[in-house]
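Support reply, case 0932

Customer input (verbatim):
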Amino acid sequence: MQAFAKEKPISVNSPTFVYLNIYEGSKSIYHFDLYRLHGVDEFLSMGFDEYLFAGGICCIEWSERIEVLLPPDCICVRISHEAEECRRIAINFGKPL
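Our regenerated output:
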């Protein structure tokens, strides 16, 4: 999140317990953590879908829980644990890998 907010340093917290953190700047950043989300209906009932098309940057952890809502031109980054000090990063233009 800090890399996206180039103009000024920001304090970044995991939104795990609140689902969403918003960072304001020249372009708003919407940081979702959907680990506790039960599905698409819950996401929609909270009105979060409006952020997907609000003109900002959405960074969504556990995005596969709302995959059907993601725009076709989204960029998906998957980080997987390979070993103690090794991570694999895969970038896909389109739906989650």
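We compared this against your earlier run and they match. Two observations from our side: The longest strand covers residues 75-83. The chain has a mean pLDDT of 86. Please reopen the case if you see a mismatch on your end.
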